[in-house]
Design a protein that fits this description.
The complex is a heterodimer of chains A (250) and B (211). Chain A is α/β, with parallel strands linked by helices. Chain A is built from 10 helices and 12 strands. In chain A, strands 1-4-5-6-7-10-11-12 form an 8-stranded parallel barrel, surrounded by 7 helices. The radius of gyration of chain A is 17 Å and the shape is globular. Chain B has 211 residues and is α/β, with parallel strands linked by helices. Chain B contains 5 helices and 13 strands. An 8-stranded mixed sheet of chain B has the order 2-1-3-4-13-12-11-8. In chain B, strand 11 and strand 12 form a beta hairpin. Chain B starts with a strand and ends in a 13-residue tail after the last helix. The mean pLDDT of chain B is 93. Classes of the chains: A alpha/beta (250), B alpha/beta (211).
């Protein structure tokens, strides 16, 4: 069995890593290559880059930093944001990304997942899903950075993604995101029934939250602020998880 | 000593591998077809994706028919990830589609009872000994795969996902890695360096380039 993974998530805008409070007041944290190198050295198991301003105009910029990251990094990384075709994915993979994440485009046209899996293999396809608790649906799927509700129940969409050939699920609880109150554990219980790996996202505030998420079936845990701000250094988190009998790469 | 030849056939993450080779100080060049590889250095066969699609792509570019002859003529060959699987006799991923047959054995789907793909860091353990490879005991390496070569008495490193599988296998100067050494931190770089040096590639970088 593989080790449980710890994954910093980096938001990228116009080729710079940024940090914002609910997308306002974006702060520049540096060049993707510099942060990638830092996390590689700190023992991150993998990185996720989300291009939050993905547009046709900045494709060239994106390819350039993806190429730079691939050359520097000796751990795998995923790139997402605005991937809506096999060609989009191909340009990222050719530039050196190991996996691509799809979200809105896959929801609008589910066959995209299938096409990507056929073209590059399921192991390259991360399906990112943003959900919010909902009285009718249990958890409802949202699109476009969480701004647009769908009529989909999370549980149905997750299984559909699995059937379409997604290789991994990156599941974000919008209710918990940014709260530091811990991951949405019942949501993880539900999603960990899937036969493909699950990355838990949204809500990490303390070491114990990561432990809980991994004990509730997540294969990997993702966070941003805690790592970027140095509030919880990755070596300390990994040592803590290993002490609690999880399989961790130290 | 000759430059490495990196087979470029649209089924590999060449950027990462090239980054690793550069950090390790190995000269290399991409080759889209065998006529661009007519010297004596090691050949690297990367690969991600589907067994049959990769086989077809290698066939269309002339590699499939040429590789056995190049190996028979003494060229070292290193397969990585799907590249290893293509060296075997065949894969459950594509029944009826032959592999190169340079390493005996079949590639089978992982599981049952475990999540597939196997995606992440696994510890390897030593099998048969090899003169050039570093001590494998407990080393973490990065894997992304749904299929794996069945282990044999000659498997060099083994890993487990539901059942044991071959992580590193070799026959003569044909070697295959199931993990991605270019994605496996310092352990992976060390492994890649050892294998390529043993295959006759010359590095211009000091021993521990990543520290």
């Amino acid at each position: 069995m593989p080790a449980k993974r710890v994954i910093p998530c980096l938001d990228v805008k116009n080729g710079r890593v940024v940090k914002g409070i609910q997308f306002k007041q974006l702060r520049d944290l540096g060049h993707p290559v510099d942060l990638a190198r830092r996390y590689d050295q700190e023992g991150a198991d993998e990185l996720v880059f989300l291009d939050i301003a993905a547009s046709l105009e900045n494709r060239g910029t994106r390819e350039a930093w993806v190429r730079g990251v691939a050359r520097e990094l000796s751990i795998p990384f995923t790139v997402g944001g605005g991937v809506s075709s096999v060609d989009d994915a191909r340009s990222l993979l050719r530039a050196g990304a190991d996996k691509v994440a799809v979200n809105t485009a896959a929801s609008l046209r589910p066959d995209l997942v299938c096409e990507l899996a056929d073209a590059f293999g399921s192991q390259c396809v991360v399906a990112a899903v943003d959900v919010k608790r909902d009285a009718d649906l249990g958890w409802r799927v949202y699109l476009k950075g969480g701004t647009e509700p769908t009529e989909r129940a999370a549980v149905d969409w997750l299984w559909e993604l699995n059937d379409l050939g997604a290789g991994e699920i990156l599941l974000t609880s919008m209710d918990r995101d940014g709260t530091g109150d811990g991951f949405d554990l019942p949501l993880l219980d539900l999603a960990s029934e899937l036969p493909i790996p699950l990355i838990a996202s949204g809500g990490a505030g303390r070491e114990v939250h990561f432990l809980e998420a991994l004990q509730h079936g997540a294969d990997a845990v993702l966070a941003a602020t805690l790592f970027h701000e140095g509030i919880l250094p990755i070596p300390r988190l990994k040592a803590y998880l290993a002490q609690n009998d999880l399989s961790i790469r130290i | 000593m000759s430059a490495l030849t990196l087979i470029d056939y649209d089924a590999g993450n060449l950027a990462s591998l090239e980054g690793a080779l550069e950090r390790l100080g190995f000269a290399y060049r991409r080759a889209a077809s065998p006529d661009q590889a007519m010297d004596s250095g090691p050949i690297v066969l990367p690969g991600v994706g589907h067994f049959e699609a990769a086989q077809r792509s290698l066939r269309e570019r002339g590699w499939w028919s040429e590789l056995p002859g190049l190996v028979a003529g003494g060229r070292p060959l290193l397969g990585i990830c799907l590249g290893l699987q293509l060296l075997a006799e065949g894969s459950e991923e594509a029944p009826g589609v032959p592999g190169l047959g340079l390493i005996p054995g079949l590639v089978r789907r992982l599981g049952p009872g475990v999540k597939v793909p196997n995606m992440g860091w696994c510890q390897v353990r030593p099998g048969a000994s090899h003169p050039a490879l570093p001590d494998a005991e407990g080393a973490w390496l990065y894997f992304v795969h749904s299929y794996a070569l069945e282990p044999s008495a000659e498997t060099l490193y083994l890993a487990d996902h539901g059942r044991p599988f071959a992580a590193v296998e070799a026959r003569g100067k044909v070697m295959g890695f199931q993990p991605h050494p270019e994605k496996s931190g310092p352990n992976g770089l060390r492994l890649l360096r050892s294998a390529l040096t043993w295959m006759g590639a010359a590095s211009t970088a000091p021993e521990e380039p990543c520290q």
